[in-house]
């Protein structure tokens, strides 16, 4: 009987560690996506101010706006794929072990930051 209980505790601990590993992975993707989004938006703002004050001129095919749109889009795509992957892994884990927490703080955070990224993308695309 004691071996059965110990096995259950070990299995339970393994499931919790796996769930936390999924959360850490999602948080890493969030960090990467935020870096891409903020870098793209920052480049856009710096070059738009530089053009406004006559310090830089637009050259080439890919200007600051195009670069910003690409960087912000890459951040949003990577974040969206990370959310989908996280949800799939947690659902699989929940099928195996029903006592896992339902709410994923990482997933909520990822959704909120993806909304912020969409707002940044809209701001870049609508500005002249």
Structure keywords:
mainly alpha, 128 residues, 3 helices
Sequence stretches where pLDDT stays below 50 over 5 or more residues? none
Gross morphology is rod-shaped
Compute the number of strand runs. Answer: 0
Total domain units: 1
How would you spell out the order of helices and strands? HHH
Reported for the largest beta sheet, the result is:
none
Helix share bin: over 70%
Radius of gyration: 21 Å
- The fraction of residues in strands falls at under 5%
Q: Structural class of the helices, strands and pairings?
A: mainly alpha
Number of helices: 3
Distance separating the two termini: 72 Å
Instruction: Compute the average pLDDT.
Output: 86
Description of the molecule:
- The structure is a single chain.
- The chain has 128 residues and is mainly α.
- The protein has one domain (2-126).
- It is built from three helices and no strands.
- The protein has helices at 2-52, 64-96, 105-126.
- Helix 1 (2-52) packs antiparallel against helix 2 (64-96), helix 1 runs parallel beside helix 3 (105-126) and helix 2 (64-96) runs antiparallel to helix 3.
- It starts with a helix and ends with a helix.
Structure in a nutshell:
This protein has 128 residues and is mainly α. It has one domain (2-126).
Chain-wise SSE layout:
Elements: H1 2-52, H2 64-96, H3 105-126
Helix pairs in contact: 1-2, 1-3, 2-3
């Amino acid at each position: 009987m004691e071996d059965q209980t110990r096995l259950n505790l070990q299995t339970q601990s393994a499931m919790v560690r796996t769930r936390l590993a999924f959360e850490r992975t999602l948080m890493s993707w969030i960090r990467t996506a935020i870096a891409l989004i903020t870098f793209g938006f920052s480049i856009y703002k710096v070059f738009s101010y530089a053009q406004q004050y006559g310090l830089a001129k637009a050259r080439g095919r890919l200007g600051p706006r195009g670069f910003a749109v690409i960087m912000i889009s890459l951040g949003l795509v990577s974040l969206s794929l990370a959310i989908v992957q996280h949800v799939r892994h947690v659902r699989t884990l929940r099928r195996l072990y029903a006592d896992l927490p339902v709410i994923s703080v990482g997933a909520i955070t990822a959704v909120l930051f993806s909304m912020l990224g969409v707002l940044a993308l809209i701001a870049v695309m609508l500005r002249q």
